[in-house]
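Whiteboard transcription, Tuesday session. T.W. wrote the structure tokens on the left side:
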């Protein structure tokens, strides 16, 4: 098939003007119904003969060089319609497809099979203007087809004006294709420019911002953002159209996260909001995941219209890791200072650890606070780290830990969700001031670790016998300062107490256990009184049972326990008699002795 080059403009003859009244009822294609076909045939016979007559009046010579040039000279300019352009316009139900990249240009094309023969002419005109012929170039198309392209001169591109297109068969003068359009309704816009992705200081969020693709039409587009995990290229990507005009804060002030390091609208399919914003906040992203982000443009359908343009080049951005990955815990012991602790695998390469803190983003139109560095990072045993700082009062606290490794490894970031000081209280252990044992009971008394929280502290007391791990834990009523425990006599006990703020305002975690107190539960005099009373009664009962059951055995036991007592009167009588006799004998001896002298 060859292409002729009609004159740049048809002669301004009244007989060659396509009347406006005929545009509305002309057939769109050769496949229309029979009635319209008859109308088209009448019109073609009327206008085609006129055009043929004019062509025969001297244009043949001017067409011949163009025909030879188009047949012999292959196109050397870049292809005006790419396969991507054709794919984006595939859903447009027209034989002649047209698009404008900047609303100051216009390109139209149609595809035909390779077997199609004959030469055609392409004409266009605005309402009440003279038809103009366009120089058509032919390009190979996949699957053996051909693509015919007309690039309009810039001076013939007008907005908000009806444009008429027509393709005529040069041999039969029949209309093959025709279309009516407005240049402002066929936009095929390039992606936005200067696309950036920034972390907004919140978990699972990234703020994506860009600049409009056309500086002359900054507020005439709607944008679509595509966000895909970089590690799963086969997964379907989530998309979102830019949301309403809620501003998350000046994106230039947001803290950036390196695209090489490890949270407005959620990425929801089908959300179509026509807005002119040039930013969107992607929410509900996974922590520590590297994402590929793309943006594309489309006229908003109000002043300009068109189809979705191509996606931008993928931009890589990564969300910070979760604080749980390093066991990051932050608390306040005194409602003024914050102590954060975390751990790092000792087997990992050594590097520097830095902790930053600041209030979280406070909303629209406010200037974000800069991250402040905690200066006193200390390293403990087994890869533990800690840092203490004094934050600004009256606001929540966000914490970010950056771990910079060696050997050119990327920096890792770990983010902790914002928390309030009064909800992260971790006091010191209570101080035991008294531990007294009386009658088998232990009385404990203690002082609250923080007097300001005395009325909002819960306590637990635990105790166990020495060398035993079987602790008994008792929950003590709120704000109590003493407790009495029952002990087993003759044992040694260890006792401890701890506190936890759990009031309506102050909340936190259990403190460490206090230093243990050691007490001895010894037996006192109170235990002897029942022993003295009960033992004789039991012994008497046993003897009485023996007397009734085994009399002989009872007699033997009785004789051994209570031997017979001699008769005192008889023994004394015999003693007195013996004494009397001895006295008489001594008296007689004395008298005889005296007489003899």
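and on the right, the sequence the group agreed on:
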């Amino acid at each position: 098939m060859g292409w002729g080059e009609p004159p740049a403009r048809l002669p301004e003859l009244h007989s060659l003007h396509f009347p406006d009244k005929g545009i509305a009822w002309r057939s769109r294609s050769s496949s229309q119904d029979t009635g319209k076909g008859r109308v088209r045939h009448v019109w073609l016979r009327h206008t085609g003969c006129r055009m043929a007559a004019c062509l025969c009046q001297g244009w043949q010579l001017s067409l011949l060089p163009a025909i030879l040039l188009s047949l012999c000279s292959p196109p050397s300019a870049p292809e005006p319609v790419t396969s991507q352009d054709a794919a984006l316009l595939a859903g447009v139900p027209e034989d002649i497809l047209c698009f404008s990249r900047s609303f100051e240009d216009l390109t139209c094309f149609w595809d035909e099979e390779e077997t199609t023969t004959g030469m055609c002419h392409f004409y266009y005109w605005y309402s009440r203007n003279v038809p103009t012929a366009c120089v058509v170039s032919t390009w190979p198309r996949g699957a053996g087809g051909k693509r015919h392209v007309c690039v309009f001169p810039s001076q013939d591109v007008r907005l908000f004006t009806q444009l008429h297109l027509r393709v005529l068969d040069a041999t039969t003068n029949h209309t093959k294709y025709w279309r009516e359009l407005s240049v402002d309704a066929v936009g095929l816009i390039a992606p936005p420019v200067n696309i950036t992705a920034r972390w907004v200081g919140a978990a699972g969020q990234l703020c994506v911002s860009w600049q409009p693709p056309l500086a002359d039409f900054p507020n005439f587009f709607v944008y679509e953002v595509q966000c895909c995990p970089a590690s799963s290229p086969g997964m379907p990507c989530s998309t979102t159209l830019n949301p309403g005009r809620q501003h998350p804060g000046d994106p230039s002030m947001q803290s950036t996260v390196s695209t090489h390091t490890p949270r407005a609208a959620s990425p929801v399919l089908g959300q179509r909001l026509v807005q002119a914003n040039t930013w969107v906040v992607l929410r509900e992203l996974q922590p520590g995941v590297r994402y590929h982000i793309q943006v594309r443009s489309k006229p908003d359908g109000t002043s300009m219209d068109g189809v979705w343009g191509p996606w931008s080049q993928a931009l890589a951005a990564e969300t910070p890791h979760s604080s749980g990955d390093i066991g990051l815990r932050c608390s306040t012991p005194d409602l003024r200072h914050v102590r954060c602790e975390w751990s790092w695998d000792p087997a990992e390469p050594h590097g520097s650890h830095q902790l930053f803190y600041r209030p979280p983003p406070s909303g629209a139109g406010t200037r974000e606070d800069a991250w402040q560095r905690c200066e006193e990072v200390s390293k403990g045993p087994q890869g533990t780290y800690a840092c203490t700082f004094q934050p600004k009062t009256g606001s929540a606290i966000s914490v970010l830990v950056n771990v910079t490794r060696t050997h050119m490894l990327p920096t890792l970031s770990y983010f902790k969700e914002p928390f309030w000081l009064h909800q992260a209280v971790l006091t010191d252990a209570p101080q035991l001031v008294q531990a007294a044992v009386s009658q088998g009971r232990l009385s404990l008394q203690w002082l609250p670790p923080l007097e300001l929280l005395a009325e909002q502290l819960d306590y637990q007391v635990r105790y166990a016998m020495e060398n035993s791990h079987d602790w008994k834990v008792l929950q003590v009523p709120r704000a109590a300062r003493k407790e009495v425990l029952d002990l087993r006599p003759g044992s040694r006990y260890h006792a401890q107490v701890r506190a936890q703020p759990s009031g309506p305002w102050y909340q936190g975690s259990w403190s460490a256990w206090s230093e243990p107190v050691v007490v001895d539960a010894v037996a006192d005099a109170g235990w002897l009184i029942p022993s003295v009373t009960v033992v004789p009664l039991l012994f008497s009962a046993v003897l009485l049972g023996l007397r009734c059951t085994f009399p002989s055995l009872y007699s033997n036991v009785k004789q051994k326990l209570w031997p017979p007592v001699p008769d005192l009167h008889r023994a004394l009588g015999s003693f007195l008699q013996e004494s009397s006799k001895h006295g008489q004998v001594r008296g007689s001896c004395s008298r005889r002795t005296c007489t003899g002298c």
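Someone added at the bottom: The first strand starts at residue 97 and ends at 99.
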